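Collaborator request, handled under Task 6.
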Amino acid sequence: MRRLRRTITATANACAPVSATPEPRRSAITNCWNSWLFRAIPQRDVKPLAKELIAKFGSFAEVVAAPAARLAEIKGMGDAATTVLKVVHAAASRLARGQVQKRPVLSSWSSVLDYCRTAMAFAEKEQFRVLFLDKRNQFIADELQQVGTVDHTPVYPREVIKRALELSATALILVHNHPSGDPTPSRADIQMTQAIVDVAKPLGIALHDHIIVGKEGHASFKGLRRI
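Structure tokens returned to the collaborator:
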């Protein structure tokens, strides 16, 4: 159980941009990964398979986030190995989400970013997620509201606010990903964010931030002074 937890934690940490990952951490991640692949494919040297997966997908985090169908395209990736990687990714997302739920969101911003990267940064289609908060900025709900295409996901501001009212939320954090890897906000992202602010503000619902995540890092509308 302890080894599993270390592996899952390493997976969550691995969702930082590759260039920002220190060598000791990369080494630890690689060792964990080799260990779990070996468990799924016993009596075989799994290092070549691990290298092939990295070559195809780009990083450990991108491998575990890849759809099972794409993992199955790699020779040697049977059902057992694919299942191991998907379980580790799901568990890493749950662990990161648990860190967000434990304390007020605004006092644990690094945990919020870790969770967003783990859950969405390496998805192959755009996803739009909303974190709903109460008046103490405690976590109420995390909902994936839309899944779109590789470069667009539809967002309906009135539906977002309707759901906030249903949950008695007084604040929101919007999150979506850019499968291209570049988290720079597009004009459409900026317009959509402003539309949500315009609907939310008269109802006393605050928009704390809109975070865009990608393989190359993240962008914060608050940090960019867009809200």
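The cover message to the collaborator said: "The first helix runs from residue 2 to 13. Residues 105-220 form a domain with the Cytidine Deaminase; domain 2 fold (CATH 3.40.140.10). Please let us know whether this matches your experimental observations."
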